[in-house]
Request: fold
Amino acid sequence: MDLDVFVYAHRAEWDRLDALTSRRRRLNGAETDELITLYQRTATHLSLIQSSAPDPQLTGRLSRLVARARSAVTGTRRASWRDAARFLTQGFPAAVYRARHWWVPTALVSTAVAILLGWWIGAHPEVRATIAAPDHLRELTRPGGEYETYYSSHPAASFAAQVWTNNAQAAAMCLVLGVFLGLPVLWILFENMLNLGVGFGLMSSAGRLDTFLGLVLPHGLLELTAVFVAAGTGLRLGWTVIDPGPRSRRTALAEEGRAAVGMAIGLALVLFVSGAIEGFVTPSGLPTWARIGIGIVAELAFLAYVYVLGGRAARAGETGDLMASERSSTVPTAA
Reply:
């Protein structure tokens, strides 16, 4: 594309669109039709320039012009409680459901890694000796030791808030850093599974695996599921960089990235629930079976939410992305 010729041929249209969007008075019918036509043409021009002859100054000018024209055509729109309800009942569960082919294998492989690490640590004293001194290990694993008092070391409310903040940050990092080919996500996953495996191995070597599971399972089922969903989505985002499919890489990353941001908000709510369980249920005086039962109910409720509501919304065409009216204009690209 000869950019100078292209600008010369369409400058008058852009100037006219600029004049129409700058009007302070209401447009008449003919002017409104002209505004819509020029908006569509300019959006196409912007896409062509971005793909064929990117020029930062011209792209910036046309991007601002298209944004103003789009606002004039569609009008401003404010978020409402209806948007929040749509997100919670359709957008978020559909996005999690669509990503199930990534996060379910991630969950299975990660759990297997944690179990293998736990078995390796529990079955080999020389490995445990590299973790800490024997006296320290006994202090960690004894009845009333650090593994048990950890969950009651702070007031329940502040402990739940701290746990929620830490887990939400880990989930957000998985989602955001996935764009770097998923490599940081794998490291975050390994660190989490290593911590779980160390606790599993040390407590099992002390003959107190049942106590460990009674402390971890009430909140850990839902918490780890949220982490696996975030990690699987981050890995999918990384794969999108490698193989965007029939979409352009820019479009694919924009769509998957917007869905990932929405999932970060939804997973923060899920982790709020698991944090509340960890702060109030895990250290409570309830019997072990009751505490684990609460964790199982929370996990099953989340899975039903994803597979029932999310599956229904996904089959209806929901992707977790913005609604079509809120997305930027694009034009088809040649294969």
